[in-house]
Amino acid sequence: MLRFPRGMSRWAVTAAKQRSTLPTPVRVGHAWKSSVATSASRTQAVDEIFQMFEKHGRGDYVGEPISQEEHALQAADLAVRSGFGDEAVLAALLHDCGHLMGLDITSERMDDCGVANHEDIGGDWLKELGFSDKVSTLVRRHVDAKRYLCCVKPGYLESLSEASMTTLRFQGGPMTPEEAKQFEADELFKTIIAMRHWDEAAKIPDKEVPSLEAYRQLIARHVDKQLQRCHSSQS
Ligand SMILES: [Fe+2]
Question: How many angstroms separate the alpha carbon of residue 96 from the centre of ligand 1?
Answer without folding.
Answer: 5
